[in-house]
């Protein structure tokens, strides 16, 4: 989490801000129902950013209505993939393809309920096939 503003070397400002943020979230949690929608938006060509929108609803029924309407709208996308075949290039980037997939891409696929079959070779196997 990025926290803007100045803080001393011990991070006192950050600790104070995080304590305030946690208190505010707990306070709002007791008086409303929270629901978070995650999405991905394009920032530049071939660059995407993950974002979240949190809804605060007055009661559980209203929150469930929002979720139902959003899910109904998502089912209208007929070109939305349900399963993907992922190729991980062991030489791509700085040879961090597998780690990037496991830490960033796979959680997004799970959240979107997309199943993925992953194909990728280790560097040693790739050298043998050259």
Automatic annotation (TrEMBL):
Gene3D superfamilies: Probable inorganic polyphosphate/atp-NAD kinase, domain 1. One of its GO terms (cellular component) is membrane. Keywords: Membrane, Transmembrane, Transmembrane helix. The chain crosses the membrane at residues 17-40. One of its GO terms (molecular function) is ceramide kinase activity. Residues 79-130 form the DAGKc domain. One of its GO terms (biological process) is ceramide metabolic process. InterPro entries: ATP-NAD_kinase_N, CERK_PH, Diacylglycerol_kinase_cat_dom, Lipid_Phosphate_FormReg. This is DAGKc domain-containing protein. It holds the Pfam family PH_CERK.
